[in-house]
From TrEMBL:
Organism: Zhongshania aquimaris
Domain Thioredoxin residues, every copy: 40-177
Family: Belongs to the thioredoxin family. DsbE subfamily.
Protein name according to UniProt: DsbE family thiol:disulfide interchange protein
Coiled coil: none
TM annotation in the entry: none
Amino acid sequence: MQRFKLFLPLIIFAILAAIFFGVERRVLTGDYVPTDLPSALVNKPLPEFSEPALDDGRIVNKSHIIGEVFLLNVWATWCPTCHYEHPFLVKLAAQGVKIVSIDYKDDAEAGRRWLAEKGDPYTVTLFDEDGSLGLDLGVTGAPETYLVDAEGIVRFRYQGALDQTVWDREFAHRIAELNVRGAVQ
């Protein structure tokens, strides 16, 4: 028994190393993405909300934004990854993709300045100063993007920055499918 006690730290280390390398292999092969936290909202309606628009303070609710397929993008001026993502969102909007945004836990003046300087790809930006809408959505950080169908049902959630690779892999086929499904109805 005394010898077993001597080897116990080595055994524990070997078990932990095996777990670590197993997870690392799954990450490298794409079987496991550590940032993919499941969203309780997928295939459920957007929560009801009433938030001020960043640009003019008018109150916007869910009925104002649904009716066609759109992206709901969560961003903030304090988010470094959002700076990387923003030019791609401007490009998507120029291609006709409807994007609604949430300026999350931010300073309103900083948000307005950001959009004036970098371009405004959004049909409307909701100002979620206290993070209550983000909490209802299950936001874990910025940026996050939700794909919402014409009826206001969340169909997909992506955590992290959108770029062309992510768009092609995760969004393009889903949007095409939703648009075809909407045209048939």
